[in-house]
């Protein structure tokens, strides 16, 4: 491929995932652009999810087609894996820089209302391969405070009560937000596992009502207005969807960088 053509494609699609995750201090502008790009990519999958895809999860619809939920879940998991991998740098200085970068990125995503991507980063920071690192334990000042604040938002106690309150406030102001698809799927699974109070051969009306309430809540931020979000400046969708990382390898990598004490 001619160099001029490569440069043209890069300019058209923005920076690559590798470039965005390279070691080194990131500017506030780059963090904001990366966050907006992730939000745009996640939103494209979210806005396309249909209620039948959710019903398929609990077997209420006889179909195996869940293309948009599958993409949303895959993006979530791969963002988590990519963040963990990016933090596991050879030098302690680079590890600290990457942890701070992802805390900044997470804070920007929360500001954007992209709770799906922000929670993926939280899952990475909570990952055993990262959480055990000295660089995480030595965070101080604004980064320690931001990490604590963001962690509290995604505290799963009382069915993610803190996040639910944050979403309720954004809804009251008419602000955009992306909910946690994984939370909706978990709630559907839990509701489906509850025994039918009457005829065990049929799904009870009460259970169907529960399904409907969960799905309606999960889809509340779908609208024509939100579907017209600007395309990502850094279109890393395909790169994220093609990520193939073994979580066991990451923990072994963490042990190699910092042996157990």
Structure report:
- The chain is mainly α.
- It is built from 16 helices and no strands.
- It is globular, with a radius of gyration of 20 Å.
- It starts with a helix and ends with a helix.
Protein topology:
Blueprint: H1 3-13, H2 17-20, H3 28-48, H4 51-57, H5 67-87, H6 92-112, H7 115-126, H8 128-131, H9 134-137, H10 141-153, H11 157-172, H12 181-193, H13 205-218, H14 224-227, H15 237-241, H16 247-257
Helix pairs in contact: 3-5, 3-6, 5-7, 6-7, 6-10, 12-13
Give the termini distance in whole angstroms. Answer: 50 Å
Percent of residues in beta strands = under 5%
Structural class: mainly alpha
Total beta strand runs? 0
Order of helices and strands: HHHHHHHHHHHHHHHH
Stretches where pLDDT is under 50 for at least 5 consecutive residues are 1-11
Helix percentage range: 55-70%
Mean pLDDT: 86
Shape: globular
Count of helical regions: 16
Q: In this structure, how is the largest beta sheet organized?
A: none
**CA radius of gyration:** 20 Å
Characteristics:
261 residues, mainly alpha, 69% helix, globular, disordered N terminus
Task: Summarize the entry for a quick read.
The chain is built from 16 helices and no strands. It has 261 residues and is mainly alpha-helical. Helix 3 (28-48) packs antiparallel against helix 5.
């Amino acid at each position: 491929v001619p160099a001029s053509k490569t440069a043209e494609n890069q300019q058209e699609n923005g920076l690559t995932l590798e470039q965005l995750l390279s070691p080194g201090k990131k500017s506030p502008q780059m963090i904001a652009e990366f966050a907006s790009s992730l939000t745009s990519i996640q939103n494209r999958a979210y806005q396309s999810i249909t209620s039948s895809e959710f019903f398929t999860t609990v077997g209420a619809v006889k179909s195996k087609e869940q293309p948009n939920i599958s993409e949303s879940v895959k993006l979530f998991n791969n963002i988590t894996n990519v963040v963990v991998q990016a933090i596991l740098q050879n030098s302690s200085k680079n590890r600290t820089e990457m942890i701070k970068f992802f805390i900044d990125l997470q804070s920007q995503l929360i500001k954007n209302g992209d709770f799906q991507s922000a929670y993926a980063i939280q899952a990475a920071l909570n990952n055993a391969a990262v959480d055990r690192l000295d660089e995480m334990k030595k965070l101080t000042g604004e980064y320690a405070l931001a990490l604590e604040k963001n962690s509290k938002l995604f505290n799963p106690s009382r069915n993610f009560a803190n996040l639910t309150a944050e979403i309720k406030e954004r809804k009251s102001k008419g602000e955009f937000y992306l909910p946690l698809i994984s939370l909706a799927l978990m709630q559907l699974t839990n509701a489906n596992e509850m025994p039918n109070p009457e005829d065990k051969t049929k799904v009870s009306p009460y259970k169907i009502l529960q399904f409907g309430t969960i799905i309606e809540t999960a889809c509340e931020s779908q609208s024509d207005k939100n579907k017209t979000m600007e395309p990502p400046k850094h279109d890393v969708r395909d790169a994220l969807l093609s990520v193939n990382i073994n979580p066991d390898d990451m923990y072994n990598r963490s042990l190699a960088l910092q042996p157990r004490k």
